[in-house]
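Researcher: Let's do a round of design. I'm pasting the structure tokens now; please hold your answer until I've finished.
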């Protein structure tokens, strides 16, 4: 995992998807498209949260 340009070794973010029928995300953060639509991928780490909006065409 890289945060603010710094590689964080041994760290683990918690990943989730808002719509698993559109896109899934692995425990390592790899996103896989499943079907057309929109989803939000969320990563949580040490009280911080980042949301990434994805569109599958």
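Researcher: That's everything. Go ahead.
Model: Designed sequence:
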């Amino acid at each position: 995992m890289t945060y603010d340009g710094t590689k964080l070794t041994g760290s683990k973010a918690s990943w989730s998807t808002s719509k698993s029928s559109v896109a899934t995300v692995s425990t390592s953060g790899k996103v896989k498209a499943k079907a057309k639509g929109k989803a939000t991928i969320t990563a949580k780490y040490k009280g911080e949260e980042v949301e990434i909006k994805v569109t599958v065409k």
